[in-house]
Amino acid sequence: MTATTHRAVGTPLARLEGPKKVTGAAKYAAEYPQDDLAYAWIVQSPVARGRLDAVVVDPTDEAIVVLWHGNAPRLRDADDPELAVLQSAAISYRGQPVALVVADTPEGARRAAQTVRLEITAEEHDTVLRTDHPELYTPETVNPGFPSETAAGDVDRAWAAAPVRIDVEYATPALHNNPMEPHATIARWDGDELTLWDSNQHPSGVAATVSQVFGMRPDQTRVITEHVGGGFGSKGTARPNAVLAAMGARVTGRPVKLALPRQQMFTVVGHRTPTRQRIRLAATSDGALTAIDHQAFSQSSRLFEFAEQTAVATRHMYAAPNRRTGHRLLRLDMPTPRWMRAPGEAPGMFALECAMDELAAELGIDPIELRVRNEPEVEPETGTPFTSRHYVDCLRQGAERFGWSGRDPRPRQRREGDWWIGTGVAGATYPAMAQPSTARVRAFDDGGFEVAIGAADLGTGARTILTQIAADALGVPVERITIRIGDSSLPKASVAGGSSGSASWGWAVTGACRALRESGEREAVFDTTELIQKQEKEGRHAFGAHFAEVRVDAVTGEVRVSRLFGMYAAGRILNPRTARSQFLGGMIMGMGMALHEEGVLDPAMGEWVNHDLAEYHIPAHADVENIDAAWLDEQDDQLNPMGSKGVGEIGIVGSPAAIVNAVWHATGVRVRDLPVRLDKLLPHL
Amino acid sequence: MRLTVNGIEHDLDLDPRTTVLDALREHLDLTGAKKGCDHGQCGACTVLLDGRRVNSCLLLAVAHQDAEIRTVEGFEDHPVQRGFLEHDGFQCGYCTPGQICSAVGMLDEVERGWPSAATGGDPEGEDLLSDAEIRERMSGNLCRCGAYPNMVPAIREAAGR
Description:
The structure holds two protein chains of two kinds.
Chain A: H1 18-23, E1 38-44, E2 50-56, E3 63-68, E4 90-91, E5 97-103, H2 106-115, E6 117-122, E7 141-142, E8 146-147, E9 150-152, H3 155-161, E10 164-172, E11 184-190, E12 193-198, H4 203-213, E13 221-224, H5 240-252, E14 256-259, H6 262-268, E15 275-283, E16 289-301, H7 314-317, E17 322-332, H8 345-363, H9 367-373, H10 391-402, E18 414-416, E19 419-431, E20 438-443, E21 449-452, H11 462-474, E22 481-484, H12 501-519, E23 523-527, H13 529-534, E24 541-553, E25 559-569, H14 576-595, E26 601-602, E27 607-608, E28 626-631, H15 655-667, H16 678-681
Parallel strand pairs in A: 1-14, 12-13, 16-17, 21-22, 25-28
Antiparallel strand pairs in A: 1-5, 2-4, 2-6, 3-5, 7-8, 9-17, 10-15, 11-12, 11-14, 15-16, 18-19, 19-24, 20-21, 20-23, 24-25, 26-27
Helix pairs in contact in A: 8-15, 11-12, 14-15
Chain B: E1 2-5, E2 8-11, H1 20-27, E3 46-49, E4 52-55, E5 68-70, H2 79-86, H3 96-111, H4 131-137, H5 148-158
Parallel strand pairs in B: 1-5
Antiparallel strand pairs in B: 1-2, 3-4, 3-5
Helix pairs in contact in B: 2-5
């Protein structure tokens, strides 16, 4: 495949929708006016397990209708059992939608939802993830289709023979995506045609799923997703709000708006599973790994098996002749975990990269040097060559920019006033994926072009970079391109997830533009399905290295991240301005994972007790001090026509470990269960 | 009920439970102010009320009939807006109108010499617009995309620094 002539790609074009976003003109899902609009509110189960026997509605309340399994329209099965809303008496978790109130006003809907009385038969529940639980099992595959277990060589023999060994357990808590825009849907029926204004990462997918649930042809649902206030995985597929809004609209014959309150997002839309992980590393005394063993435990709900791929990144990160990875899953009476930014890589690489730091300290080898010594030639488990891998360059060049050399490797050496100061490093990786998509381009008489693809821009800059890609593929300035995205009636696009958006959609756009030029026609459509099916799937990864400097207050245990730096090798950077923002955003979410974020479980109720933004702290302005990102000019012609790898997730991979390793270097305290709270440090300061 | 927004007085027939935020979004089609939490915890709904920044989700419309409300739609090419565009001070854009209104209100507080938690003992002679001050003063406005590092120079430059 020949490379495109790059002119616009690689330039820092400002976001095309920027002016709309800073003036309030950009419309999000809940912001489209409708005549005769009604408002819906979800009633959630107050118990973690049981049966809903009846719903008693106060006749004086303000509801137009209260739907529950006793009176709700029957739905067809979807692939996601969470979408079979109000179809069964069974209660699978606390917070599950069990009724839907529709009223004339938002105030009325909210009030009526509070006055509805649920008659429930509660049952004993089980809500705690334990590594010795008798019901743990090995799932057939882990998300999105990796084998649960892999093994090579003889880990036990290598372990027994190794002079240096690390055997450590790590824990990560439930984490909640919390995009700033809560999930929301406006549903309107026109005869048998359904229109949804819905906040999601995949308009084509949501349209197909909702049509399936209501027993319709895929094209009978149109999903409009012009602007999306973030998703971070939680909007990757249709969520219950889309189905419930459509159901409410069907029953009342009116357009219905269902905007989730923040509190409901902690249960209804998915979250990152808590994990427990055990890592064993065996090495020679000069730091060559002889064995790697990574075993991960996570949870899912009774409704749906979501098995996070926690240990998968370990399969290609470092060389070692003897290796083993595995996943064990426990189904609990809890909400279903789903995707959250870098599912698998984020918690898994926290554990692996902290364990590497512990091994480096044990060996007395610099943590960067240890990683360099275990750099694999090819993918260690598959033997597949990497299309490109510049991990060592990220470590070396990152170290130089960060100022790593001359670091005293001993912990708890640097003190300024009340502050202990330390630095840490950790590796990063994320797969470079592409998924089938279709794009259409039309030429107009005025020399302009319309490029259309049903993609979604969650704030990634998709609209902007697709315009840049199209301009280059057509050989015209960006001003002559009109981009249309965010609508399921446009050519079918893959999900804005897995850091695959720009690769997948950009490929389709490039193909359509080239086809247009070659054919001389006024319109061209290009579908990448066949090209992508033919492509090798292994050996495609972005890499990076994160560096952190922290200071820890010796009196209070407060941790401040004075400096955070990411050095990446992620293929061609399509737009340095939007890419940098994504890298930094991922690193900041990684800081939240390291220091702040934690869904706190009340086992008695099966509830995340801190389910709002006051009690679940996400990084605020004041948490972010000196932060920066840089990247190598990496060429990779085997991926897609742009040579890009995707940058949305790698920033959260490894950045938590860099911070936690820096906390150890500052204080001598190894915190192995996230987040690094004050109370975990204080007894040791 | 009367509500004055961006210099225009509106006569509205509202449920007395209606917040200023819902009045704007559901009744006046002014959807610039965003609903991120409806609990005063995220700042996405920030507007200026008689010149001061407030969380409009925490205010009942009926109690603010005499106030001058200014939303992001009421600004035209404000230096803070230009700064956000210049520095890529947003990604998804959902917190952005609140950040912008908050920054405008914050710059006025600085102008008046109001201290923050980041200010030392004597506000006189301190730089109330240092990066640490801007971060502290803007911490009521959450951004999950993590656009904070780009907002700081945007706000600093809007203040003419």
